[in-house]
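[recover] target loaded
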């Protein structure tokens, strides 16, 4: 049979998306094609392979045994194709294409300088920046939807992911510049418990680190509000006597607030670049990380890494 190879790659991409969502309607929206086009392409793939990949009824879509068997091979094939194109692009010494970066909310303030520098030096590279929780970003990385993730080192190692330390940091009490804690060199958890606090939501990295500290040093905090938006949380701190707990780097270049380090054993947060192990790395990715390491935001907290 005479086969059109690019069409087959597209069909595999369609197959993987339907397998991910187990829904033709959801997959078609993500792929920006009509549901009928998607169904036709999957049907054509099934005809070429002479096997049924999905069981369909009016309510559900499930993978057949053949579909389950095909899925890891389809993912590997699509990754190999992406790697091939990336290598050719790099061999041509053209810093073009797309760079997909995941960033946790606490890490974002130190990124602005590097973003502006990179865009100025390499205007042909399109940057896609995703701000999500650590767990969501690592999941995207594992699905090869991201080239790398910028986040603090998690307390639990993620299988198949390398974490390279960029700088050292620590969890801090964040207060407005006029707060009575603002002039202190540090604050312990016992003293922190005397103040009303506003915290980032559970699931955000700073909150996870705080919970880890509290498990080792049991103290009851007077929590008045929880937010999943760090920028709004900081505005609230500026306009009140509330205290929040974030990484020190979260308030980099943020006026009107102060970071008071929390004095407690185990209060270390390492800013890291997280990437898949044993995978190809684009020149644009290496260059972005190099520029980040040379930025003033990181130099102030510099930690050598390989």
């Amino acid at each position: 049979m005479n086969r059109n190879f690019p069409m087959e790659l597209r069909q595999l991409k369609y197959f993987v998306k339907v397998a991910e969502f187990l829904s033709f309607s959801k997959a078609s929206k993500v792929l920006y094609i009509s549901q009928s086009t998607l169904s036709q392409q999957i049907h054509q793939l099934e005809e070429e392979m002479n096997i049924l990949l999905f069981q369909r009824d009016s309510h559900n879509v499930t993978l057949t045994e053949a579909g389950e068997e095909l899925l890891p091979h389809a993912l590997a094939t699509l990754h190999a194709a992406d790697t091939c194109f990336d290598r050719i692009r790099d061999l041509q010494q053209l810093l073009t294409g797309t760079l997909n970066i995941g960033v946790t909310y606490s890490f974002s303030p130190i990124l602005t300088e590097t973003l502006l520098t990179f865009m100025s030096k390499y205007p042909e590279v399109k940057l896609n920046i995703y701000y999500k929780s650590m767990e969501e970003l690592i999941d995207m990385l594992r699905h090869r939807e991201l080239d790398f993730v910028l986040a603090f080192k998690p307390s639990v190692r993620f299988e198949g992911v390398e974490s390279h330390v960029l700088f050292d940091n620590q969890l801090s009490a964040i207060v407005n510049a006029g707060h009575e804690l603002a002039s202190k060199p540090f604050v312990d958890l016992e003293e922190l418990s005397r103040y009303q606090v506003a915290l980032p939501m559970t699931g955000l990295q700073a909150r996870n680190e705080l919970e880890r500290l509290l498990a080792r040093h049991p103290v009851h905090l007077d929590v008045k509000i929880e937010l999943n938006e760090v920028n709004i949380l900081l505005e609230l701190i500026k306009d009140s006597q509330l205290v929040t707990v974030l990484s020190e780097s979260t308030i980099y270049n943020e006026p009107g607030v102060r970071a008071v380090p929390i004095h407690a054993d185990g209060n270390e947060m390492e800013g890291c670049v997280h990437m898949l192990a044993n995978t190809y790395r684009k020149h644009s990715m290496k260059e972005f990380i190099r520029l980040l390491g040379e930025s003033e935001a990181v130099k102030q907290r510099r930690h050598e890494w390989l």
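[recover] notes: The chain has a mean pLDDT of 86.
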